[in-house]
Amino acid sequence: MQRTFLLGKIHNCRLSDSNLYYMGSIGIDQTLLEAANIYPHEQVQVLNITTGARLMTYAIGLEANSGRIELNGAAARFGEAGDRLIILTYGLLTPEEVKHHEPQIVFVDEDNRPIDPILTQSSVWV
Predict the structure, then answer these.
(1) Of 5, 57, 97, 104, most Cβ neighbours within 10 A?
(2) How does pLDDT run across 16-72, given as a tens digit for each residue?
(3) Catalytic residue chosen out of the listed positions 22, 58, 66, 123
């Protein structure tokens, strides 16, 4: 039997832009994708901390180290620039895999740059 577990998470990032007339998805800085172990075209759940909205879409990579996170197409209706987001991926794991599994959780600063949450505790929940 397999069960669904968190695989990757980008926590408390800031939405940079919304592009209603672009093919649907969420564009994410490639550096953040890699840090959270999220692949381009992988299904993601997007939680809007600001509004409480939730949606499923897929990730596309944006320029590395740009700090950009953009909702596209119909997903653009779920947030506007400045909103705080949590981006999640899930996967099916066997009981044996669960014993050794640790999700890749990435905390970011005000510019969507990865940070060490232990060194900057106050920045994580701003």
Answers:
(1) 57
(2) 999 999 887 999 999 999 999 999 999 999 999 999 999 999 999 999 999 999 999
(3) 58
Q: Residues 80-120: pLDDT tens digits?
A: 999 999 999 999 999 999 999 999 999 999 999 999 765 54
Tokens, residue 49: 């901390």
Neighbours of 124 (CB within 10 A): 15
Residue 22 appears among annotated catalytic residues: no
CATH of the domain at 65: 2.40.40.20
Number of domains in the chain: 1
State the pTM of this model: 0.90
Rounded to an integer, what distance in angstroms lies between the CA atom of residue 26 and that of residue 6? 19
Helix H or strand E segment including 45: strand 43-48
Annotated catalytic residue 25: yes
Q: Which of 16, 18, 22, 25 is catalytic?
A: 25
Domain region containing 35 = 3-124
**82 — alpha (psi -120 to 50), left (phi > 0) or beta?**
left
Q: Which residue bears the tokens 């232990």?
A: 118
